[in-house]
Amino acid sequence: MIRNIIFDFGAVLVDWDPHHLYIPFFGDAQRAEWFLTEICPYSWNTQADAGRTTQEITEERIALFPEWEKEIRMYYGRWIEMMGGQIPGMEALVRDLKERGYGVYGLTNWSRETFPLVRDRYPVFGLLDGYIVSGEERMMKPDPAFYQLLLDRYGLKAEECLFIDDNPRNASGGECLGIQGLVFHDAEQIRAELGILLSE
Q1: Residue ranges per domain, the chain?
Q2: Is the dihedral of CA 100, 103, 108, 110 positive or negative?
Q3: Is 120 left (phi over 0), alpha (psi -120 to 50) or beta?
């Protein structure tokens, strides 16, 4: 029986997207896409999610692409401009689950430096019974040890947990432990799937 629902943060509870910053800056969606693919790709940002400092990885990137220094420094210097709002419908879903007696938790790949900038800006984070942040723990999804850390910290049983993530690899990362996974597309879809699973 599922007793606890665990949520990813970015693209599930809140909207984080570097395009929010770089499309207006470049004035060209294609140029922004090229920059975020070739100069500051998501794989580079994951180093901060894994616990490295933003200053360290920024200086390394500038050493590789000195002609892009201004734009690279923007990534963390103006990072808050990458944030949109809460994902529509998700705060209401989390509230509903809490009211029905389910535990609600968070498991996120996020920098220990940038998450505090948004933690208090979004009401949905305040609803959670607990969460762990990869940058603070120096481990990341889909490493099963990261999921196990959440279970251990909050005294949860894997077979009583369901994890929701927009990345299929991350959604299934805890299945070897017994945590059921669901891939997130939008609030309506996930509410419907939860309605079926939680009624079983």
Answers
A1: 4-15+85-197, 17-83
A2: positive
A3: alpha
Single-letter code of the amino acid located at 169: R
In eight-state DSSP terms, residue 80 is G
**How many CA atoms lie less than 13 Å away from 141 in the CB half-sphere?**
29
Judge whether 153 and 131 are in contact, CB under 8 Å: no
Fold of 4-15+85-197: Rossmann fold (3.40.50)
pLDDT, tens digit (0-9, with 9 covering 90-100), for 3-61: 999 999 999 999 999 999 999 999 999 999 999 999 999 999 999 999 999 999 999 99
CA distances from 55 to 32, 47, 58, 114, 147 (A): 22, 11, 5, 12, 28
Output the pTM of the full model.
Answer: 0.96
What are 103's strand-pairing partners?
A: 4
Q: How many CA atoms lie within 13 A of 10 on its CB side?
A: 20
